Amino acid sequence: MLDVLSQLIALIDQHVIWLYVACGLAILWYVRSFIQARQDRAITTFPIEKEIAVHREGRAMTGVGMMLGVAVLVTAVKYYVLPSVDLSEFAEPTPTHTLPIPSVVAMVTPMPTPDAEEIEEPTAAAPRPTAVPPTEAPTPTPDTPTATPPPPPAPCPDPNVRITSPGMNAGVSGWVGIHGTANHAQFQFYKVEYGIGENPGNWNTIGDVQHAAVVGGQLAGIDTGMLPNGPAWFRLTVVDQTGNFPPPCSVRVTIQH
What we know:
Number of helices: 3
CATH architecture of the largest domain: Sandwich
Strand content: 15-25%
Largest sheet: 5 strands, mixed
CATH class of the largest domain: Mainly Beta
């Protein structure tokens, strides 16, 4: 643990300028995202897009705060921790083991000389037994494993608003790609959301709204590692040019870390 800490402090000391540059670039990128979200919220007339723009503004400001925190941490380590810490104190001496060298003493054991009477004539060699060919064992036939069918897709009423993967009540973990169809005769955009629990009270948008229709392809992707274990829901909503939308398609999944 001390070795890891000393290596981390030495890394910050050697690359402090690059860490500042990386934090500055990240802050500029988050500020740009915040400005774009603010402009989108001012231009749009749809409540759904305004809500999504507000979420984007919040994520951007959170990112700015995180980068400022990293910059403050690097500054504290560089100018307050390093001047008062001797990195050589963290190095643990490597113990050396001295093994004794064994001394080998050659011992000569006298062998008795056999008497002439004790020497017997060699007897005739016994006949070699006839080898019996081994019986071949029957080759076992491996059992063919039965493939587990994938969970069925969600029974969504509109074929143009459908999530085909993951299926209903499927177990998911790690990065999950959400596939299906999001289309409409007067298509404007679609969004994919997730909610926690059997009856979610809040829905969070996965990424941003998408203004390109999808037919039998990937709609969105999410890292379920940031979500708690248990039931969750994915919901697809397609909005037309008038701001109306058909019934959304919802899929229940179980998050398993």
